[in-house]
């Protein structure tokens, strides 16, 4: 919760953040919502998740039929079905891109069915059922769900063996070639490489290999391959954050391809998450670009509730600080400044005035005023304790900012940092915040902008409501030992 300061990164360190590349969410691999294989215009495919939804819906009916007739309450069963669907969706059990084996998802499917029936039995007339009857109903429901899913996934795997999803492999040419060869040896994976996207012209040397796949070195060549071969998946090996590679991947994502990261060199730390593997290579989807993740509405609700409550609680403190500033330094206690927020949109940020710039130009282009000698002791106190930032709660309440997010910056410096640090513009995918992951990790005051951008993008990539709570608690703890800005 402090003012920003800038220390130029050492030479050679102007690089993109090292977190996962942010791209639009994958549409489905293999054979999910990606483009159809083959030449010519792409036709819209039916939603490949629908058979799984139908299998789970049929399983609910089987469970309902196993109930005694007197306990078949349509409303209870409808709520139960919706609850099971929601739990399965949250666990990615409708993600057709993962293509698990028939037995892989049995624990997850049965566990969520059991939870759904347990809640229904506790909160509805079903609580009068004998435990033995309820266990029989749950067993019937689980058996029907697992059997239906096994049939659906089996048919899907058979279809993919007949018509695998065309894919491009992106990364260092030697590693990409090895991955492509492994996939060509395993057609049952449902993915057929049709080309390699190498990192530069030097990768064109010594390309004779057993795959015989073409090698592309520019984004234009790769996008032409997408249209020509109906590419529906892009498999990334190596660091996805490499600048020249990131631009190629964004173009491929814009073409409708599903983007996946493969761990081609398994070590003690591998890619994680419920992503499964492809021909033995651990894989995970590359994340969506805009930061609009499920739960964003809850984040906004948390912002409104907490900022409103804090405005009421800190109102007397704000009023006292404003009166003290008015008496000691004259009129004009509120400082207004244009900052850049989500999606690059400007807004007016509010603070208690602790310094009077010589001109609007100085306010917009001078980096830090934290060590100005002409500041009064009271203004130094406001900045050291971050009390001057409390007015930003109003920015949060009206939607300009969030409680937690990347700190907003002035347009002049946004333009500079965006040129110097390739990952800096990505931090505007989410609402800016009063505090953030960078600030609680000591990146306040005179610290590296490159480091801040890396932490900000890591926060957006891995955002969760619980992470916001943790950042707020750690920020509150820092009030006990303020270090100044």
UniProtKB/TrEMBL annotation:
Membrane spanning stretches: 50-69, 132-155, 301-325
Renumbered to this chain, region (Disordered) spans 1-44
Tell me yes or no: is Zinc-finger among this UniProt entry's keywords: no
Name the residue ranges with Gly residues bias. Answer: 28-37
What Pfam families is this protein classified in?
Answer: Bac_transf
Q: Specify the protein's topology with respect to the membrane.
A: Multi-pass membrane protein
Looking at the keywords, is Disulfide bond present? no
Q: Which InterPro entries match?
A: Bact_transf, EPS_sugar_tfrase
- Where in the numbering of this chain does the Bacterial sugar transferase domain appear? 299-480
Q: What is its main location?
A: membrane
Q: Where in the cell is it found?
A: Membrane
What keywords would UniProt list here?
Answer: Membrane, Transferase, Transmembrane, Transmembrane helix
* Annotated family: Belongs to the bacterial sugar transferase family.
The record's section on NCBIfam families has: EPS_sugtrans (TIGR03025)
Q: PANTHER family, alphabetically?
A: COLANIC BIOSYNTHESIS UDP-GLUCOSE LIPID CARRIER TRANSFERASE, UNDECAPRENYL-PHOSPHATE N-ACETYLGALACTOSAMINYL 1-PHOSPHATE TRANSFERASE-RELATED
Q: What is this protein called?
A: Exopolysaccharide biosynthesis polyprenyl glycosylphosphotransferase
């Amino acid at each position: 919760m402090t003012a920003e300061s800038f220390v130029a990164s050492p030479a050679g360190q102007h690089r993109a953040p090292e977190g996962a590349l942010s791209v639009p969410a994958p549409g489905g691999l293999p054979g999910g919502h990606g483009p159809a294989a083959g030449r010519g215009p792409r036709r819209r495919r039916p939603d490949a998740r629908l058979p799984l939804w139908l299998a789970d819906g049929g399983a609910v009916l089987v469970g309902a039929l196993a109930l005694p007739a007197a306990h078949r309450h349509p409303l209870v069963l409808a709520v139960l079905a919706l609850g099971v669907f929601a739990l399965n969706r949250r666990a990615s059990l409708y993600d057709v891109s993962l293509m698990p084996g028939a037995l892989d998802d049995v624990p997850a499917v049965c566990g969520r069915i059991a939870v759904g029936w347990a809640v229904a039995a506790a909160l509805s007339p079903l609580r009068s059922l004998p435990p033995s009857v309820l266990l029989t109903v749950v067993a019937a429901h689980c058996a029907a769900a697992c059997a239906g899913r096994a049939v659906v996934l089996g048919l899907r795997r058979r279809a993919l063996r007949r018509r695998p999803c065309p894919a491009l492999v992106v990364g260092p040419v030697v590693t990409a070639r090895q991955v492509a060869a492994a996939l060509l040896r395993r057609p049952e994976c449902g993915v057929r490489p049709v080309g390699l996207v190498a990192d530069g012209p030097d990768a064109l040397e010594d390309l004779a290999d057993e795959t015989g796949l073409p090698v592309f070195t520019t984004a234009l060549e790769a996008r032409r391959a997408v249209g020509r071969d109906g590419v529906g998946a892009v498999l990334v090996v190596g660091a996805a954050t490499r600048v020249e590679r990131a631009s190629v991947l964004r173009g491929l994502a814009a073409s409708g391809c599903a983007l996946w990261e493969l761990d081609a060199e398994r070590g003690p730390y591998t890619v994680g998450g419920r992503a499964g593997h492809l021909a033995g290579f651990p894989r995970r989807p590359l994340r969506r670009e805009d930061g609009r993740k499920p739960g964003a509405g809850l984040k906004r609700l948390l912002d409104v509730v907490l900022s409103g409550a804090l405005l009421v609680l800190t109102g007397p403190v704000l009023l006292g600080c404003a009166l003290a500033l008015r008496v000691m330094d004259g009129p004009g206690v509120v400082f207004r400044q244009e900052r850049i927020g989500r999606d690059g949109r400007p807004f007016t940020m509010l603070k208690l005035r602790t310094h009077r710039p010589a001109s609007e130009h100085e306010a917009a282009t001078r980096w830090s005023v934290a060590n100005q000698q002409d500041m009064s002791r009271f203004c130094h106190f406001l900045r050291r304790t971050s009390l001057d930032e409390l007015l930003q709660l109003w920015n949060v309440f009206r939607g300009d900012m969030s409680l937690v997010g990347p700190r907003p910056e002035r347009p002049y410096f946004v333009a500079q940092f965006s040129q110097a640090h390739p990952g800096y513009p990505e931090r505007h995918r989410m609402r800016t915040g009063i505090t953030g992951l960078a600030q609680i990790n000591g990146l306040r005051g005179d610290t590296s902008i490159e480091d801040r951008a890396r932490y900000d993008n890591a926060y957006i990539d891995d955002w969760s409501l619980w992470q916001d709570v943790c950042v707020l608690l750690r920020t509150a703890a820092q009030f006990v030992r303020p270090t100044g800005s």
